[in-house]
Write a structure and sequence with these properties.
Layout (H helix, E strand, L loop, with lengths): L1 H20 L1 E5 L3 E6 L6 E7 L9 E10 L1 E3 L7 E7 L24 E5 L7 E4 L1 H9 L7 E5 L7 E3 L1 E2 L2 E2 L1 E9 L7
Antiparallel strand pairs: 1-13, 2-3, 3-9, 4-8, 4-13, 5-10, 6-7, 6-9, 11-12
Length: 182
């Protein structure tokens, strides 16, 4: 029992030390594109992209999450499964395309959540792994696609306050010592 208490105390001490050194960086989207899957259909997914500030270059990413407020079709009575995937191709545009089938997504699902109808608490997706790879240059940062797994004929949108898209990328990081400057 004493050994377990010691381990817990060490873990808590380490957690407190890292938390004291950690910095949270909040990034607003620099590109957002709502998408319809068919010409007559509702907006049911969206592309969203973030530019990283230079201040992240010498940082170790501890945790990154996509935090957003969304709105589901009011006709949905069951929980919806919301997927987040990295986009593999560049995209641009500020208009509302009717069909955007030429863009692809990785086969690997980053993360998903269940959203209940009427849930206004917001969603938080863990995107630590892909953000770290983007920052290391292992993959191109083409942003995310956020969509329902099923119900492509039901609307799903991120909320806005005026021109501000309510979908921030929050990154918890610590400074990495520069070993080249001694």
């Amino acid at each position: 029992m004493k050994k377990i208490n010691t381990i817990i105390a060490l873990f808590l001490g380490l957690f407190i030390a890292v938390s004291a050194l950690a910095e949270e960086i909040i990034i607003e989207p620099n590109a957002y594109l709502p998408v319809k899957s068919t010409a007559e259909g509702p907006i049911n997914k969206f592309f969203i992209k973030y530019n990283f500030p230079d201040s992240l270059k010498n940082k170790t990413i501890l945790f990154a999450y996509l935090e957003m407020e969304t709105e589901l079709d009011t006709a949905i009575h069951d929980k919806a499964i919301i997927n987040v995937l990295p986009l593999t191709e560049e995209w641009s545009g500020s208009g509302l395309p009717e069909v955007k089938s030429s863009l692809s997504v990785n086969d690997t699902l980053l993360t998903y959540l269940h959203q209940s109808p009427g849930n206004n608490e917001g969603l938080r997706f863990n995107v630590t792994e892909i953000v770290s790879k983007w920052l290391k240059g292992e993959f191109d940062n083409n942003g995310f696609v956020v969509m329902q797994r099923k119900n492509a004929n039901r609307s799903f949108m991120v909320l806005q306050e005026g021109e501000k898209i309510l979908a921030d990328l929050r990154i918890l990081c610590i400074s990495t010592p520069d070993v080249n400057n001694k």
